[in-house]
Each structure stands twice: as structure tokens, then as C-alpha cells.
Amino acid sequence: MKTNLYKDRGHILYTGGITILGMYLRLWWIHHIPAKPIYDFETYQEIAANIFMHLGHSLRGEPVAFQGMGYPTILGFVYRLMGNHDLYTAKMFNVILSGFTLILMYLILIKITDKKFIIHTVYTTVALLPNFIAYNNVISTEVLIAFLLSVIVCLQLYTFDNRLRYPLLGFFIGIAALTKPFLMAYPVVAAASHWLKEKDVKKTAVLFLTVFLSMALTIAPWTLRNYQKFGRWIPVSYNSGYVFYINNNAHNTTGAWMPIKDIYASKELREQIDAILDHGNRSEKLAHELEVVLKPAAKAWIREHPWEFVKLGILRLKATFFSGAWDIEAWAMNEFKEKQRWWTEIEYLRNMNAFRAVSDGIIYLLSSFGLMYTLLNIKNILWGLWKKDSRLSDLVGIPTLHIAFFAAVYFVFEGQARYNFPVLFFLALAAGASLDMIRTGLYGEK
Length: 446
Known about the structure:
Elements: H1 9-32, H2 40-52, E1 58-59, E2 62-63, H3 70-82, H4 87-112, H5 116-128, H6 130-134, H7 142-157, H8 162-179, H9 186-198, H10 201-230, H11 240-247, H12 267-276, H13 290-304, H14 306-321, H15 326-332, H16 336-339, H17 345-386, H18 394-412, H19 424-443
Antiparallel strand pairs: 1-2
Helix pairs in contact: 1-4, 1-5, 2-3, 4-5, 4-7, 5-19, 7-8, 8-10, 9-10, 9-18, 11-13, 12-13, 13-14, 14-18, 17-18, 17-19, 18-19
């Protein structure tokens, strides 16, 4: 029986209170926990600052397309709008995006289920999740991509004139792909989700083609720019070959990033790498030619060592979903230890270890429930894709398809703790659905 949540005063007060608390904690974090951008985050900031100063999408004075251009470009225009390129401006932008993301996640929840237990459990998790709070302090793609994915899922769930909805969906997928290039494959996920519910070949084909073309048109200006700058076909970024081989070579034992000087390379390949990098005098982020030589090498190594590739893929999934929340301290509070004046060394270590224990535990629980939910439903998904009379609810399809999609990408390319960020909402959704099944199994429906 459908519950009218808009007339449920208790529900309104609870979700409103959780939203206010979640937003307060986000603001508190960026004002009280110091962090500076390092590594890739420093690159995002430099590019955004260059865009603010009308120097184009450049790094160290040269055109660049090593990372997706979406986040630094959007941030650069935010800087122009605000008249500065201060880190505080970027962090406040994250908080604003995070607030809109909470609203969108709530809209997703009430669309796919009317069970208050699931809605309250999942919404409380995403509003108060340490990762979702802490990453507002990081100059990175995470908060933006969570927002874009929420918009994309909402556009799939809330129907209106398809002549507008499908191109709009393709546009936002295009922006997401310009932020995370592997999302160029997302139209397949959208089509699969539509087919699992509607079972209409013609309508699913129309959705896929419209969304794909709209996405391609959104990406096209950047692709043209890359052709003009680098003289070859680069749809979004040129780091796929670099990342592919760095994480899949005979010397990689962890499935994670490693310095290019330490990777396995034949004499011929090493000479090519050294020539491209000018024997260490040129940044890998500017060396677009690396993709041309490293991608074939990665494919060849995988063909010759399929089981070693599988081992590295398993390590990547472990690093992404079962490494806890060490990334919070590394990226979202990396200046806190030096600048805080409240605790002694012993107190700091004890408090941080306690915070880490809680944060780790939450991630382990979400990942365990989420991945188990996905594994149990993969059979239903595959059956539903082939059988026209088998329909699946969004409560099954949305989390399962998204978790499986991101897991497949990380299995092949790269895994680390912060890469679980765009999947956390779907893991929480799967966990909420799992807990509800356990609850109703033990106590019956209430």
C-alpha cells in the first residue's frame, strides 16, 4: 500500500532534521579541518586557476587532457563567477553540490520504494556518511560526479516528455563522461535499466540512440579541441593507456598505481618511454604520446597473462571496496595533524584511530551488503536481459547495475579507496534493501 510521505509529519521532521545535520557537518568540516590539494588534486586546482586567469585548459604552460576536463573546467568558471580562485571557494562549491545531491538522492529513494525503513536507513547513511562529509574538503571530482550521477538516475526514474528527457539525459551523461571518461559507456547501463523495466525493444533502442548521440554531441567540442592540440583522436583524455599499463604489467604486485620507472618494459618499450618523457624532463601528464605505446603493451600483456590480470583485478576490487576509509585522512584532512592545537600527540593518535575505526567499519558494512546484494541479483539481471517476460524493480536494477558497472571498470583499470565514492549511494541502497529483507524475514512487515 502506497504511503503518502508528504503528509507524514514524522517522516518530514526526521528527513528535514537529518538534512540540516548533514549540511551542518559538511560546513563544519571545511571550516575546521584543514586540507590542501596534493597529487592529482593539485593538478585540478592548477588547471582551474589557469581557466580563471583565461589561460585555457593548460598545465605548466602547455595544453593538457590527461584527466577528464569536466571538473577543473566547471571549477574554473565558478572561480570566474566568484572573482577568485581560493580553495575555500572550491570547498563551498562542493558543499552546495553536496546539498543538491542529498535532495536528488532523496527523490531517487522515494521514487523506487515507499518503505520508510529503507528510505530512512539509506538517507541517514548518505547524509551522515564520513566520506560524503569529508570530501567537501577535497579539490577533486568526487562530489561533482556524485551529483551528476544523481541527476542521471533521477532523469531515468522521473518521466516527462521523452523528446526533452532523453537528450537531457545524454547531456548529463556527456558532462559526467567529460569528468570520468569511462562513463562514455554509461548509455549501455541506461538502456539495460530501461529494458529490465519496460521490455520494449523499440523504446529501449530509441532511448539508447538518443542518449548516445546527445552524449557524443556534448563531448564533441572537447574531442575536436584535442584533435587540434594533439593531432589525433582523443575523445576525452589520453591517460587510459598510461593507467592501463601502469596497473597491468609484469612488475605490478598490488593492482594499484606504480611509478612508471618501476613498470616492466622491454628494451624497445623503455627506449620509447624515455624518449617521450625526455629521460625524466617531461611530465607524464603532458606526454600524450604515452597512450599510443602503452595501451597496446597492456593489451598484449593481458592476452599473454590472463590469470595474472585476474589476480590484479581482484586486488583492485579489494583496494576499492575493502580498504576502509584511509583516504579521508590522506586527502580530506592532510594538514589537520600539524595545524590542530587541541590534542597532544597521544590524544590525536587515539582520536584519529577511533574515527578511522568507525569510518572503516561503515565502509566494510556497506561494501559487504552492497556486493552481496549485487552478486545475488546478477542472475536476475542476466535472466531479465534475455527473457522478455521477466521484469525487475528499480530497487533491484538501479543498485545492482551501477555497482556491477563500476566494479567492472575498477577490475580492469585501477582501484583505490577514494574510487568507491560514486558507488557509495548505490552500496547504501543495496544495504538498506538487504536489511529490510532481513527485518521483514525476522519480524514480518510492519
